[in-house]
Backbone:
């Protein structure tokens, strides 16, 4: 409660949390519990809170269809990307071969001894 009061008086959350050796999140959680439930909020145990659970609605047929359509579109996009990357690889392989050929030809021409007659 002292930490919460210090923050309410204007001290920063981070300096107070550091002084107490706790994370900012914990101090924020304490402040939130204090504001929501008063002193009893600070005595609550961690874990599921009492009361009805908020469940996510089950996906409908349309949700499943739209998820499937999104997944198929993503797959198509990735396949196009792989195709472009393969074209780039093929191009650079051919360019590398073309660069190696003249270099190899130049070495063999200069490596052969020239006979010079006086």
Residues:
């Amino acid at each position: 409660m002292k930490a919460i009061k210090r923050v309410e008086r204007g001290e920063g959350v981070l300096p107070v949390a550091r002084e107490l050796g706790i994370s900012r999140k914990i101090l924020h959680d304490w402040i939130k519990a204090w504001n929501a439930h008063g002193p009893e909020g600070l005595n609550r145990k961690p874990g599921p809170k009492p009361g009805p659970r908020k469940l996510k609605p089950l996906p409908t047929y349309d949700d499943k269809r739209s998820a499937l359509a999104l997944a198929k579109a993503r797959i198509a996009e990735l396949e196009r990307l792989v195709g472009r990357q393969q074209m780039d690889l093929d191009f650079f392989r051919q360019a590398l071969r073309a660069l190696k050929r003249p270099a190899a030809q130049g070495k063999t021409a200069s490596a052969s001894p020239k006979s010079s007659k006086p």
In short: The chain has a mean pLDDT of 82. The radius of gyration is 35 Å. The chain has four helices and no strands. Residues 90 and 105 are 23 Å apart (CA to CA).
